[in-house]
Each structure stands twice: as structure tokens, then as C-alpha cells.
Amino acid sequence: MPVADPAARARFLAATRFNQDGLVPAIAQDHATGEVLMMAWMNAASLEETLATGRVVYFSRSRNALWRKGETSGQMQQLVDLRLDCDGDTILAVVEQKGVACHTGRRSCFYQALREGELVPIAAPEVDPAVLYGR
């Protein structure tokens, strides 16, 4: 879902309220199932590239650089729809996920839950992370 019109992309960016670090939280949701896959951060450059190309791009705080989802693992996200919440300070990226979303090899990063008072994994890895990242 690339947005070809630069003016439309500029309007989306202008409506986005970035925090003091120039970032906005972005939640990725599977377009087919509605499953929440992950949360990451976007800056203006990653948001612009996501809108322009249709490939979801985040900002990696640990690398201090753009993170094109799947650039090392192949587990890309293709944009289906991009939504801004009522306050303009959180993005919902509705995506077509290729493979798993989590670096642990699980479909979703939200795989831990309280069960009988303990935090336990409720989903097993679907792929070995060493295979994803060539380690």
C-alpha cells in the first residue's frame, strides 16, 4: 500500500505527534487475523519511507538507525493500512507478515502471559532464531 502522493504522506506526518526523542510507537497487527505482532518505534524518516514504499520501516533505538523489517531475517512486513490514533501519538500498522514477527522465532512478540501466578511462554518458536539471523 504505497502512498504515491507526497502531499498525502506529508499530511500523515504532520498529524503525527512524535515524542521528545522524535519517535512514535508503532504497533504491527496482522491484516488477516487481527493478531498483534509487535511494537516498535518510528521516526519521521521511517514513517515517510513506510508510506512511500509500502514496506514497513522502523527506527532501531539500539542501532540508532532505520530498521527495514526483515532486512537481516527475511521476515518482512508489507503495509496493508496505516492508522493514527485519536491523539496522533500512536501508529497502527496493519501488515501482511512474511514469516514470524519476533526475533525469538515466534509469530508474535507478545508470547508471555501470567498463568497460575507465573510468567510463562504461551507460544513456542516457529523457527530457530539462529536460522533467521545466520548465527
From TrEMBL:
Report whether Calcium shows up as a keyword of the record: no
Write out the residues that bind Zn(2+): 86, 102, 109
Matching entries from Gene3D superfamilies are given as: Phosphoribosyl-AMP cyclohydrolase
Q: Its annotated pathway?
A: Amino-acid biosynthesis; L-histidine biosynthesis; L-histidine from 5-phospho-alpha-D-ribose 1-diphosphate: step 2/9; Amino-acid biosynthesis; L-histidine biosynthesis; L-histidine from 5-phospho-alpha-D-ribose 1-diphosphate: step 3/9
InterPro entries according to UniProt: PRA-CH, PRib_AMP_CycHydrolase_dom, PRib_AMP_CycHydrolase_sf
Biological process terms from the Gene Ontology for this record are: L-histidine biosynthetic process
Q: What is its EC number?
A: 3.5.4.19
Which GO MF terms does the UniProt record name? magnesium ion binding; phosphoribosyl-AMP cyclohydrolase activity; phosphoribosyl-ATP diphosphatase activity; zinc ion binding
- Per UniProt, Mg(2+) binds at 85, 87, 89
- Report the residue ranges that make up the Phosphoribosyl-AMP cyclohydrolase domain in this protein: 38-111
Which prosthetic group or cofactor does it need? Mg(2+); Zn(2+)
Determine if Heme is one of this entry's keywords. Answer: no
Q: Name one GO cellular component term.
A: cytoplasm
Record's subcellular location: Cytoplasm
User: How is the cofactor bound here?
Assistant: Binds 1 Mg(2+) ion per subunit.
Q: Which UniProt keywords apply?
A: Amino-acid biosynthesis, Cytoplasm, Histidine biosynthesis, Hydrolase, Magnesium, Metal-binding, Zinc
Protein origin, superkingdom: Bacteria
What broad class describes the main subcellular location of this protein?
Answer: cytoplasm
Q: Which reaction does it catalyse?
A: 1-(5-phospho-beta-D-ribosyl)-5'-AMP + H2O = 1-(5-phospho-beta-D-ribosyl)-5-[(5-phospho-beta-D-ribosylamino)methylideneamino]imidazole-4-carboxamide; 1-(5-phospho-beta-D-ribosyl)-ATP + H2O = 1-(5-phospho-beta-D-ribosyl)-5'-AMP + diphosphate + H(+)
Main role? Catalyzes the hydrolysis of the adenine ring of phosphoribosyl-AMP.
Family indicated by similarity: Belongs to the PRA-CH family. In the C-terminal section; belongs to the PRA-PH family.
Oligomeric state and interaction partners are given as:
Homodimer.
Q: What is this protein called?
A: Phosphoribosyl-AMP cyclohydrolase
Q: Which organism is it from?
A: Teichococcus deserti
